[in-house]
């Protein structure tokens, strides 16, 4: 029996006396509160999730008097910049939210703790999480464990319900849409009907002007680099493609395969047809959420982490449907998840572990399920989140159908991800800006794979 399934009989003892939760600015790891409590700093980037994790911190502190949790939140880009800088300065947060795109780098540089020793002494059941999530945070040796799963996400189509109805489609119709790289299938027909030019002519009507569009059928925010999570991934993955030879820790990437090039070529063709905006317009600074709310986009592909935010858009009834069925006869989505990691330089590893263990527990993940912001990693907590979403009028099955039907692909994990993106981001940008042809990605892929020969 492996460490991913076994239970042990002893739990770490709770420590100390209660202290209040604080939101601080750049508190240093190793702080001791005025009352003598050990301070554990915890960093995250999503402000929408702050209330839920503040509640988890309050509950944790009641159970573990003598430990104070101080939460700090930064925007996505600033978060990673600050985290890198504090690691170099040896003042990083004790615990932080980790992402699969960053995890390999941190693990290879020895900047995060291997938690397997703590897991050996814990009765935390790793079999309670959605399948595949624990393995995302395992080291290349298959034995070390650098994080515990906190949530999972998949992608779906967010759409303006009034526009869909005006185009003659029902919500049920959207569940049946299919696409293929030859003619786009019924999904492309749908996008054409949802696109309207400045004269009120739809994309499937005579006289449509693709150079003067008022509402695009499908919006996006960038070319997607080597990940394409909310851009091209649902099409490439449902065309029988996957990122690399194995995952996690693949060493041979597949951006040169026909299935990928076909999907990218078709996706790019939507710009020429006027159903999707040019890259310069998509990256002009106005987000997909705001563009859907303003009527500039009729649909966008986005992640489950934004479901509640889209439902709260003022002036528009934003609903959700699953990604289209591909040539392989199945829809597809990246299956990603976040973890909580412990900085290897923390002066309080035992207390940091207690907090990570609690974040990975049913108690905390049930709290997060009630917020309607995430799908927690624990399966029973995920079920509670589905009920929460349903109560908010969000068809959460558009996300969970991928898990139920087994149509997910794990997000790629490698210690060379940052270097990979320095190659694939400009390469994809050039393709989507029509400065290069999709075939140019074969050369980009060769350069990516040379990273793993060095």
Describe the structure in your own words.
Belongs to the bacterial solute-binding protein 1 family. Residues 1-29 form the signal peptide. There is one protein chain. The chain has helices at residues 50-63, 76-88, 100-108, 116-120, 161-166, 171-174, 185-194, 233-237, 258-272, 279-282, 288-294, 307-311, 349-359, 362-371, 379-391, 397-405, 417-432, 441-450, and strands at 22-23, 38-44, 67-73, 95-98, 148-149, 151-152, 155-160, 196-197, 213-215, 299-303, 318-321, 333-335, 339-342, 375-376, 408-410. The protein is α/β, with parallel strands linked by helices. It folds into two domains: 22-152 and 336-377, D-Maltodextrin-Binding Protein, domain 2, CATH 3.40.190.10; 155-335 and 402-450, Periplasmic binding protein-like II (D-Maltodextrin-Binding Protein, domain 2, 3-Layer(aba) Sandwich). Strand 2, helix 1 and strand 3 form a beta-alpha-beta unit. Helix 17 (417-432) packs antiparallel against helix 18. It is globular and about 75 Å long. Mean pLDDT is 92; it is low at 1-27.
